[in-house]
Structure formats: structure tokens, C-alpha cells
Amino acid sequence: MTRANDLMRIRDLLQRRRRAILSTSEGAQRELSALKDSDRDPEYEEQAQAELADYTLSSLMETQRREVMLIDAALRRMDTGVFGECVDCGADITIERLEAMPFAIRCEEDATSHELEMRGGHAQSIPTL
Asked: Which N-terminal stretch is annotated as signal sequence (predicted)?
């Protein structure tokens, strides 16, 4: 299989994932609205459960919103012909990495360097006994 075919397969997977997220998100939004529109005066335990459900649904929706943003960014990179190119060195990101992390913008080597930089340039080590 060629790299172009692999990238088209990844595009298809991203588009299907995006549709699934949006469908799930609509259901979560309906549930959240129903919880908030409840007219009854709940008991303490029921209120706590409703608040937990509200928090859980809100967190899920935020996670889904972020993933859709990442998918949209990846699809835009595909449309402009730069998907799969490392933003740091310009080399091709391996298909294996893109399959595992389709939002990846760096090759493995540059991603590791970037992560170390973000942590202050120190590799975390496990103390020896």
C-alpha cells in the first residue's frame, strides 16, 4: 500500500470518528438539557446525583469538542497537503505513528525533544536503589 493510500485511509477514519463524536455529543447535550430543565425539587441525594451527571456530561462534551477540533485541524492539514509532515524538521511522520496518533504534528524524535523542552529540558529518571 502506498503512503497516499494510507493517508486516505486515515482521512476516512478521521471523518468517521468525527461523525460518531458529533452524534454522541448531540445525545449528551440532550441529556444535559433534560437534567437542567427538570422542574421537580429533588432530594439531597438526587441533587448530588444530578450534579455528578451534569459534571460528567459537561466533561465528556468538552473532551469531544477538543477531539473534533483536533480532527478538523488534521483534515485541514490533509487538504493543504502538509498532513504527515513534521512541523519541526519537515520529514514524513511514519504511518504507524499517524495510525496511532492521527493528530501528530511531529515525528517521534522531534516530539520527544519537544516534550523534554516543555518539561524544562530534564528527562525523568527512575531513582535506583
From this structure: none
Total structural domains within the chain = 1
8 Å CB contact between 29 and 58: no
pLDDT tens digits for range 56-72? 878 888 899 999 999 99
Half-sphere exposure at residue 45, Cβ-oriented, CA atoms within 13 angstroms: 0
Q: What is the CATH number of the domain that holds 64?
A: 1.20.120.910
Question: What would the pLDDT profile of 14-47 be if each residue is shown by its tens digit?
Answer: 999 999 998 888 877 777 677 666 655 555 556 7
pTM check: above 0.85: no
Whose grid coordinates read 500500500? 1
The answer to whether residue 124 sits within a structural domain is: no
